[in-house]
Amino acid sequence: MKNKWILFWIAGIFFAGTLFAAAAKEKKSGGNELPIIPVPVKVEQKSGKYTLRADTKIVAKEVEAKAVAKVFADDIYRVTGWRLQVVPAGTGIVLRLDKRAKTGAEGYELDVSSSGVRITAEKPAGLFYGLQTLRQLMPAEIYSTKIVKDKVWSVPAVKIKDEPRFGWRGAHVDTARHFYSKEEILKFIDAMAWHKLNKFHWHFTEDQAWRVEIKKYPLLTKKGAWRSDILTRETGKRFDSKKITNHWQKGLYGGYYSQKDIKEVVKYAQERFVEIVPEIEIPGHSSAALYAYPEYSCDGKAPGWPILGGGVFGKIYCAGKDSTLNFLKDIFSELCDLFPGGYVHIGGDEAPKGAWKNCPDCQRRIKKEGLKDEEELQSWMISQMQKYLESRGKKIIGWDEITEGGIPKGCTVMHWREYTDKKIAPLAGEDLIVATRPTCYYNWGYAKEDQSFLLSQGGIMPIKQAYDFEPIPRGLDEKYHKHIIGAQACFWGEKTPNEKILEYHYFPRMSCISECTWSPTARKNWQNFEKRLQMQEKRYKAADINARPLVLPADYKPY
Ligand code: ACM
Ligand code: ZN
Predict the structure, then answer these.
(1) Which ligand has the minimum distance to the alpha carbon of residue 366?
(2) What is the Cα–Cα distance from 489 to 203, expressed in whole angstroms?
(3) Nearest atom in ligand 1 to 490's CA
(4) Which residues face 85 on adjacent strands?
(5) Is residue 458 lining ligand 1, measured as CB closer than 6 Å?
(6) Nearest C-alpha to atom 3 of ligand 1 is from which residue?
(7) What per-residue confidence (pLDDT) applies to 306?
(8) pLDDT value at position 557?
(9) Do residues 270 and 335 make contact, with C-beta atoms less than 8 angstroms apart?
(10) CA–CA separation, 559 and 557 (whole Å)
């Protein structure tokens, strides 16, 4: 009898130990999360499932809700061939706009049961994000670019309450060093939307090329949109950028986005709640513009081709000539007409100010305006553009170098360099977007052994490092946190001449910036994210996105 009791106790302790170990393991792995990226704030799994059918209705009453429903219906049609009807009342997938829902500007509540789906949100963006979550609950093939036959489109029953951590959830693409087609930009924006990212930072100009049509100055694209060396410029031979696999291959190639293209992209992005933030670099990174219009530089001479290096070695706009300021205002004016969003990015990084030191016009300006030096001249020039852009209802953003002549009032700073001192915008009461290198620089390689490293600009930045990124600078007093409006990933294209390579670098890391900017820190969990990435990889495959495989096969050819 006594032995029996001892055995009973031993078995009990063993059982409790096993349970404890399983619970600890479960906690470490983040539990049995549904494969949603970014992970939602609160998920309550229920029993049962809902199955989409050809006669499923989307119920939407208001004009805005109907517009959201239509984008979802089009996505479903492309894959299933079913034209889901949008109706004002009834059952099915019900979209409810409710001012009292307390979901915030972009949050939502999603309730899936066997009898139907209900998404409630204060604002249309919330309905859109609720539908994106619904899509992620379906089989990965729902992201397919073609019809998928004989699939059951079921969704597990669940209750989700969700809202973003930050209002700025951005992705930047340098389309200047190399040109990526309009179709690629649309594809990229679509992917951003299902990662719940909402700011597309479109980098249009560089030393190497100018990519946006400006009607008043046609030479910007006629001359400035094509990269070349002298030989091929003479023969006029154009290269198809898709055929170029090495960034050092010489040739005249490129392209630009016409104003018609841009209108199409803006509309597409608006339908997906993505605001486009256009960037025209001033005063540096401007050799391509000054190749087309040399009269706006200090010495009036066009830079030679090819434009080697660029950035700190390139040409700079003359800040002393009024004609240069008028030229830039004309350009920003057309930009304001094209982009309805609230922000314009004016660059400001790595400006080579040497030419200003020897320019009589620039020196005269310094004296006349009572400026201390060339740093303050840059601040002055930017403030001129800021005044103009604010008169057009826009806020300006600049890279963190714009703070070097003093932190400009009313300007949002985008920090790309590591924080080296306390001179950061929130301390001066200004907004900050965190895009710090290397964790936000998706042009860096994944690993040394990865062939993509050859076509990476920068060092190594593995997926885990991208995932571990924390947007709030360490040690920043809590009272300044409200000025960190968000974060974004950046992609510099010096070495990435085609879309496949762009995609390889951005995906799956886009999932990292997505979760880092949307999900609460307490919900982030690397082990669990890794598991969810497996489903995300299937989605990338379905969407024909050239994502880097999670497990790299030997001798893998990335593109
Ligand atoms: C930058 O990387 N120069 C913004
Ligand atoms: Zn000058």
Answers:
(1) 2
(2) 13
(3) 2
(4) 57
(5) no
(6) 349
(7) 47
(8) 81
(9) no
(10) 6
Is the C-beta atom of 416 inside 6 A of ligand 1?
yes
Beta carbon of 264 within 6 Å of any ligand 1 atom:
no
Q: How many A from CA of 168 to the centre of ligand 1?
A: 19
For ligand 1, atom 2, which residue shows the shortest CA distance?
416
Q: Which atom of ligand 1 is nearest to 414's Cα?
A: 4
Q: What separation in Å is there between the alpha carbon of 94 and the centre of ligand 2?
A: 61
Cα separation, 417 vs 349, in Å, equals: 10
**Number of CB atoms found within 10 A of residue 203's CB:** 24
The pLDDT of residue 389: 98
Nearest C-alpha neighbor of 107 from the set 129, 90, 88, 140: 129
- Name residue 266's amino acid: V
Ligand 1 atom closest to the CA of 311, numbered from 1:
3
Mean pLDDT split into 10-residue runs, the chain, 559 residues:
49 47 47 92 98 98 98 98 98 97 98 98 98 98 97 98 98 95 98 99 94 97 77 57 60 87 98 98 95 96 64 86 98 98 97 96 98 95 97 97 89 90 82 96 90 78 97 91 97 88 96 98 97 98 97 84
Q: Answer whether 330 contacts ligand 1 (Cβ < 6 A).
A: no
- Report the nearest atom of ligand 1 relative to the CA of 285: 3
Give the span between the Cα atoms of 50 and 242, in whole angstroms: 43
Domains contained in the chain, CATH given? 30-162 (3.30.379.10), 168-542 (3.20.20.80)
Q: Is the separation of the CB atoms in 323 and 296 below 8 Å?
A: yes
CA 359 to centroid of ligand 2, rounded, Å? 5
- Decide: 159 and 111 in contact? Cβ < 8 Å: yes
Distance from C-alpha of 119 to C-alpha of 130, rounded to nearest angstrom: 6
Alpha carbon of 194 to ligand 1 centroid (Å): 27
Q: Work out the widest C-alpha separation in the chain, in whole angstroms.
A: 105
Helix, strand, or coil (residue 289): helix
168-174/116-121 β-pairing: unpaired
Q: What is the pLDDT of residue 308?
A: 46
Ligand nearest to the CA of 361: 2
CA–centroid distance, residue 302 to ligand 2 (Å):
14
d(CA 146, ligand 2 centre) in Å: 55
What is the rounded CA–CA span in Å between residue 300 and residue 318?
9
Atom of ligand 1 nearest to the CA of 437: 2
For 122, left (φ over 0), alpha (ψ -120 to 50), or beta?
Answer: alpha
Query: Ligand 1 within 6 A of 375 CB?
Result: no
**154: closest CA among 71, 56, 272?**
56
- Considering the entire predicted model, what is its pTM? 0.93
Please give the pLDDT value at position 555: 81
Q: Are 133 and 278 in contact (CB under 8 A)?
A: no
